[in-house]
Amino acid sequence: MDTGATPARTGDIVADRLRAAQDLYDRGEPLDALIAAVHSTGLTRSERRRLHAEALNGLLALRLETAARRDATRLRQAIDLLRDYLSEVEPSVKRRLPVARRLACYLIENRDPAELAQGDELANLVAATAEPSKRVRKGLAWYADLPVVAPEPLFRLRRSDLVPVTEVDDVSWHGGRLRVTGHAYLVGLSVRSRRLNRATVVLRGPRWVPPVYARTRRVYRPETTHGAGEPGCNYDWAGFVAEVRPWSLRWRAAIRAAVHGAQRLLRHRPAVPDTTTWRADIVIWSRGARATGALRGPVVGRTERPAGLRVRPGWWVRPAWTSDRAFQVVLQPTRAELTGVAHVADQIELTGFLPGTTATKGRARLGGHRIHADFTPVEGGTRFSVALAVPALMKERDARRLWIEPKGDPAAPVMMENTAETHLAIDRREVTVLRDRRDRAVVSAHRVWPVITSATWSDDGTLTLAGTYPDTDPGQREIVLRQRAGLTYRVPLGRSGSDFSVRLAPGAMPRFGGTVALASGAWSLSVAGGKGTTAPLRVDHRLLDTLDEGVHIVGDREYRLVATRFDVPVLVAAEHLPDDEKGAGGLWALRRVHYPAERRRELRDATVYVSFDGRSYSDSARAIYEERLRRGDDREHIWVVKDGAFVPPDSAALGLGPGVTPTVVREGGREHYTALARSSHIITNTMLPQWFRAREDQTCVQTWHGTPLKRVGGDQRHMSREPRPAAWYRQAAEVANWDLLVTQSPWGSEVLRRAFGYGGEIIESGYPRNDVLAHDRSDLAAAVRRSLGVPVGKRVVLYAPTWRDHDRRNSSVRLDLAEARRVLGRDHVLLVRGHMAQAPPTVPGLVVPGPASLVRPGPMSREYPFAIDVTTYPDMADLLLIADVLITDYSSVMFDFAVTRRPMVFFGYDLERYRNTRGLYLDLRTQAPGPLLSEGSDVIEAVRLIDALSGDYADRYDAFVRTYAPRDDGKATARLVDHVFSTHP
Q: Which residue in 211, 173, 178, 181 sits closest to 199, CA to CA?
């Protein structure tokens, strides 16, 4: 169905210029290029005002905020450019901007540019507007409370500031009326009761059609306060229930139909039943403020697919959602109905009926393609048939709606009110004719998709999915759960003929030989394996009405299986929080009330362990904990765990005998605040929460997470500018909590002391996490290999790059995996360890370990996978233990791996850029204990020849160890434990 047409311009010159500017912004082009893209040449006054408003409230404001967070030079350049631009903008456009943008424009136009760039007024404004601003009432008007000196009228909240926050959690029919339930409020204006608090849902039809004022009442919904983002605000009475009678829509639509029918009769054309659409707004009166906004934001799941109501034969009232998630109600006639689907030779024949219409000519339309249709007048209407060529359908990639266009009449969508959906298998592909959420016929051709026909939850939180998957390839399949951030899980899929089933335990997903709970967020479901590509999973439309989309609580976590975008299954995971810990209000109470009260209580003889903010059981905290358990230290041990990431082992699980079981506290929970307030010792390897302040009688041990090669703390360029950025003050407050800093070497002590401005005690014990690398731990190494699926005898190459401040969303792997497999041969395994601050690596050929990947051939080998993604493996020390060769760039892992004396290769493909942007402490060209290369092919070749190359760097390697890892002799943990906990009997 290729028409050969090229995409046309929208015809909206303002939208075209904004789109061009957005492209430049996404590419990181400078501010002057953005301003040039949104020029007002050739525009009418209304177009010019619209362009200026969109630009000043969008891309230009964002670029100004970025400059305000950086150095004074960049800010001055931005001020000069925007000052010239603002001179062409009408004052009325500036007045209508949101208050923060309005004030920024005022400062740029009225302050001295040099003083404004050197001062902190713009930076303070940007920081303040990042949080919901405080509202102050003066008389009958509301004003923003922002840290800027400007005329008072500029602070007044206008229509652009008073935008209702809405969410709809139910749309259903009750007693023949449409009931819409949700919440709506104005940010910063508490609604603690019904008093001075009104809301009305208004349905606005086309042009002159009278609006429908739905009967709306406020209801008590404390969960709105829990989910809000403003501390100190109460939205308990922000809930609403609105009801609409279909008759209110029908009589208005009847008047419109009569007018349109008369107009058609004057043109000598018969009247045609017409669709009328009402968009839903909500009008809020709250404490003297009035605001109107679109009613939008359906809760994911059933609310996204509300049912329609048949009000009389051939007429339906259908609630619906637009592409931007705005609510609308449609009164729609059934002008064309599908009655049959047949597969004849190489064609799909669709037949249908046009009730009340006599037509002999016309066309059909599939998406944007017009095709031939046959029309046959019969009693009560017209039958039509459409033939679709299967080869042409197979070339299409998108599902397309079917329309009928009788000659002289408007196009009518073909509906599927009573017609069964159709799946026609053609080889390993299928043609489907399905209904969408508004019962319109949709035709598509694609690979055979698995369809869920049953979804059940057991009492232990296990989800069992069953369905059909008539793929003729009998190969093994896996269910793939993927999070937007890139994290994936694979679970084997059971197949029996065309049926499949799978059991998922969201609270215990397989990962590296163990189990872990699904991280919070939405997880998409698909099926992978066989000769084809990944096939998306769908929910059978007959199951949608009865699908269990409720919350299932397993331990301290909750899970939901929902169908979003009509029939796309998504597994949603979240922490199960008490009501008093939810939202900004709960957070405020924990920090301002609970934590100070706990700090005043007596200390407990307990130790809190924090590794990477609670994300893993790893690093030096793990080594210290296990050493103390080996010594029989039975004092209280508390592990902070973020989002159910791990379960710390007790003494029995470590093979040390029963007796010591650690306490687990949820990061951010009430027990977390209590533990940090009352524990005598705190062991951490990263910054602690901003709200934490160490007590005089507490001991806070900072082990840090590696000797730095890239500049850290105050040595970073942005940390030295004036005025000091907010990060500088946060770091100063954090460092003041430390009582002891653990370093790997005298060189590391000097760097970290200067970078963090630390003046306290330092112990150069070596890093406890590296003790495992200095001993013969063949038993542990074998266990790690088994958990990763690495066979005995394979040579392990670990690729562990650091993160890029300037390119954190890049998920590519710079090494060519296919080339590496060809050059290194089948006796090598490549482990790829992405940095936790970088987008997880996603590249063809990279396998995520799991039950299936350990037994099936990898996509790039005949036996076991060659390239394995170990980004989420808990402890880097285990990976270093089994690695025979390390490939890295500017990561601190080089200082740790040096303990093993095994060879390293340095892949510095962007060395100059990284040195100029982030900065490095060492000159790798002269000090790297291995070859420094800039091409991926050279790195692979160096790994192949590493045994021969290692001798060339022996002297440099020895000097590297003496300077940067002199104390990593396997006894670092013992030295540190003796130093910190020696008072224990």
A: 181
